[in-house]
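Batch job 17 of 40 flagged for manual review because the log was empty.
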Amino acid sequence: MHPILGQRTRLGAYLLAWIPLVLFIAALLREPQGLSVPAALLLVAPPTAVFSFVCLAAWFPCRALPLAGRPVASVLLAHGVSAACAAWLWFAVGLLWAAAWSGTTPAADLRTAWVDSTGLLLGLGFVLYLLSVAVHYLLHAQEQAAERQRQVLELDMLAQQAELKALRAQLQPHFLFNSLNSISALTSDDPGRAREMCLKLADFLRASLSEGKPSQVSLAQELELARGYLDLEKVRFGDRLRVREEVETEALSCRVPPLLLQPLVENAVLHGIAQLLEGGEIRLTARRVGEELELAVENPVDAEVSERPGRVGEGVGLGTVRRRLDAIYREKARMDYRVEDGRFHVRLVLPAEDAS
């Protein structure tokens, strides 16, 4: 596609740029040839309008003769011949246009004025065509830069998609391994609860696989999945596992990556509730603050274990969440965690994008 003809705004700007050129050429011919201003414009404007479109043809030799990798002499020679041909074509069109006025009073003056200005017109045509060549080379370079940028963005997007697929593939086996271990522990002590847990696991996997296909889901959908997982673990822990939600209504419609909360609540159960004989409460909070969505998960931790160096940090779950946020949002999202007053706090901040 021609970079100027293919865009109306560019074509309009290009044609407007020729108006001062027409006035300049008419002024050059008017005084030496003794023409009035209307006669000079009548002589110059139509042939120059045709010549402006002839100069657009410079795009094709510019594409065929890129400056990189070709001898400069051959490129200059090719464009010099093209400029000479274009200049003579402009002169021929102007001569025919002046001859077309043969039945009018200023006919002889117009034709004579055009012929007498042969050298000037051919020189101007040669220079104007070469200027068009320079403009088209600039447009060609701009198109190449845009194409390279598009390719870089496309490769970056493909890399992000591949990374997210790898992270999701890492997340699912980790969750299944922990869930199956929980079911295995119940089979000998309480077969009925083990069967109930199997059914809830099947329901959760069915929901997570169907919701996990899109790249974004609403926070309301993500919370349903988190509740499904916690319901699954309640079969195992009973009254030891309690859940409290503090979710603002404005946050429910925000978009989040699927299965974002599941590793966080899984960590809260495995590294918090499961390590305490009395269990405890997991708190899920979500609120929208301006253009950001804040999500937090809190759970009790064993005070003695949390005080040991190296016991509290990023494992598979938190590491996966951090890398997913980096891959999707780059620097627009962040995650932090801390232990305070016997509770482990993890907080996510990401752009608040409405699901609608």
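Reviewer: the log was empty due to a logging misconfiguration, but the result itself is present. The chain is about 65% helix and 15% strand. Unflagging and moving on to job 18.
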